[in-house]
Amino acid sequence: MPNYSGVWTLTQQLQAVAAGNWQSPPIPTGLFAGGNTGAGVTNIIDYVVISTTGNATDFGDLAKACSAFASCASLVRGVFAGGNDNTTGDLNSISYVTIATTGNTTTFGSLPTIQSRLAGCSSSTRGLFGGGLSTGSLTNAINYITIATTGNSQTFGQLTVVRSYLTACASQVRGVFAGGEGASAVVQNVVDYVTISTTGGALDFGDLTVARYALGGCSNNTTGVFAGGVASGVASNVIDYITIATTGNALDFGDLISAGYGVGGCSSSSRGLFAGLRNASQVNTIEYITISSTGNSSDFGDMTIARNNLAACSNAHGGL
């Protein structure tokens, strides 16, 4: 059997699948899907190999162009939920891709209501989608799916605060939701958490270092990292972090190269990537951090097109 350990190219991974030589863990692949280009929304999905640096490559297309939606992933599947297509409005659709094979999304099921500006996270088996706008009103609802199957989402519980434009990350045990814009446009610093394998309401975890919304989140199994967003009405370059297994306030991690909001985050066990932010305009840059060591982000490469309010996920994040 060929040795596909270490850093794979996606071509090597596809060859391994075709030859029946699949080995775990797979190549750490990050997906960046959809988003707002400034001229409209896009259906483009890009991918990168997280353990390298370089520009993104085209993966396929979403069934419908949209922005302000959520994503989660297992080792095998990337799942996208909700969003706004800038034409008919908010969506309730859930779709998925098989990360090891490039291509377009396939229908998974539906959220209970049309919903946008929500956040997603997952374990290896279960995906959670929380918060956002539901039929035009702020919600604190959390819904869940079983990633390996297809079907409509089911009720999980509620966040501690209604809010939209929040972000999320996970360990193998906990899902964490952070930040957002709450009632009366009050910007939130709240961080709350759930136990992914159960159902029920979220519990208070602590606070972000700076209240902000439209931020990006990612994690390995121990550390959650939150970057960018809008704070006090302006784009933020703040990166802060938490230890997921504990509770308490976030701590300063470092700074993004560029302040921005509408950020998508994804990760491997060692690296976090942030992409698709906007300040004066949308940009195509991807930045990365080493999760185990605090410090400022570094340049990774570029997405195929500039956009923000995209969805990002990976097959190597902290929930797996």
Explain what this protein looks like in three dimensions:
This protein is mainly beta and 320 residues long. The protein has one domain: Kelch-type beta propeller (Neuraminidase). Helix content is 3%, strand content 42%. The chain is built from 1 helix and 28 strands. It starts with 9 loop residues before the first helix and ends in a 6-residue tail after the last strand. The N terminus is likely disordered.
Summarize the structure.
With 320 residues, the chain is mostly beta strands. 3% of the residues lie in helices and 42% in strands. The protein has one helix and 28 strands.
Q: What is the secondary structure topology, with strand pairs?
A:
Elements: H1 10-18, E1 29-33, E2 44-49, E3 57-61, E4 70-73, E5 77-81, E6 91-98, E7 106-116, E8 119-122, E9 126-130, E10 133-134, E11 137-138, E12 141-146, E13 154-158, E14 167-170, E15 174-178, E16 190-195, E17 203-207, E18 216-219, E19 223-227, E20 230-231, E21 234-235, E22 238-243, E23 251-255, E24 264-267, E25 271-275, E26 285-290, E27 298-302, E28 311-314
Antiparallel strand pairs: 1-2, 1-28, 2-3, 4-5, 5-6, 6-7, 7-10, 8-9, 9-12, 10-11, 12-13, 14-15, 15-16, 16-17, 18-19, 19-22, 20-21, 22-23, 24-25, 25-26, 26-27
